[in-house]
Amino acid sequence: MQTFSYSRLKLYETCPQRFFYKYVKGMQEEVTRPLALGKAVHKAIECLLNGFSVDESVANGIIDVNFHEEVSREDILYFLERTPFGNLRGETELHFRTPLFDYENSPEIQGFLDLWDRANNRITDFKTNYKPYHIEDNYQLALYAWAMKKVNNLEGDVKGSLLFLRQRGVSSTTFTEAKMNEAVTWARNLVNEIRFKLELLEFDSTKQNELFPYKPSIQCEHCPFAYKCFRDNPYPVKNTIIGEINYDENND
C-alpha cells in the first residue's frame, strides 16, 4: 500500500478491522444518505463558485451521486442557502499528492481541498455534519496545510476554516509549523504501522484479526461489516452499545 489519505488513516485509527475489510480486501460499503448528500452538496458548491447557475449546480450534484434516491433537489438547496458565497474565493476541489517521508519511493499522502485561497494561504472545508466540532479536534486540515505548504514551497503559517453549513457555523485556526508537524507525525506513525502489519500478513495470512483487530464503539452501529466482524472474532464483546455477543461458529 503506497498511497494514503486522511480518511483512510482515520478509519484505521478508529477500527483497524474495518480498514482491513475496506482497503485491503476491497469490500464495498454502501453509499449512505449522509455520504451521498455531502458529496452532492460539495459538487453543487464547486459548480456555483465556478460560474454555473443554481439549477445547473444542483443538477450536477445529483448526477455526481448517481441520482441517489435519498438525495433531493430540496436537500441540496437547503445547504446552498446556508453557504456564505460572498466570502469565498479560490481554487475548488484541488487535488494534492505528495511524499509523506523524505526518502526515495516514500508512501504518499493525497487529498482534495474544497477551497484553496492561494493569495491568503487559506484552506476552507465544507461540512454537512449534524454536530459541529473544533477544527483542531482532528488532524485533517493540519495535514492538508502541511501538504499544501510542501507542494507549493510556502513560507510561514497556513490558515484553515471549517464551515458547518447546517448551523451556519465556522471553526478557524492558524496552523503553525508545530501544529502541522504534529499532524504529519501522526500520519507517518500510522502509515509505518499499517505497512509493517501488511508485511507480517504476507508471512501468515491467518493473523489478520490479530494484526487488524476490531474496536467496538458507537461506530459499529453504522458499519456495514459489523455482523461479519463479530462473527470472525472468536471472543465475546462486553460493555458496548451492542451488548455481549457470544461467538458461535455453528450459528448462521
Structural features, described:
InterPro entries: PDDEXK-like_dom_sf, PDDEXK_AddAB-type, Restrct_endonuc-II-like. One of its GO terms (biological process) is DNA repair. This is PD-(D/E)XK nuclease family protein. Helix content is 41%, strand content 17%. The chain is α/β, with parallel strands linked by helices and 252 residues long. It has two domains: 172 residues, Lambda Exonuclease, Chain A (Alpha-Beta Complex); 51 residues. Strands 1, 2, 3, 4, 5 and 6 form a six-stranded mixed β-sheet that branches. α3 packs across α5 and α6 packs across α7. The longest helix is centred in the last third of the chain and has 27 residues. The C terminus is likely disordered.
Helicity, in percent? 40-55%
Strand content: 15-25%
The residue-averaged pLDDT reads 88
**Count of separate DSSP helical elements:** 9
Going by CATH, the architecture of the largest domain would be Alpha-Beta Complex
CATH class of the largest domain, named Alpha Beta
For the secondary structure, the number of strands is 6
CATH fold-type name of the largest domain: Lambda Exonuclease, Chain A
Please tell me the total number of domains: 2
Instruction: Sketch the topology as an H/E string, one letter per element.
Output: EHHHHHEEEHEEHHH
What general form does the structure show?
Answer: globular
Could you list the spans in which at least 5 consecutive residues all have pLDDT below 50? Answer: 236-252
Distance between the termini: 34 Å
Q: Tell me about the biggest sheet?
A: 6 strands, mixed
Secondary-structure-based class equals alpha/beta
How much is the radius of gyration in Å? 20 Å
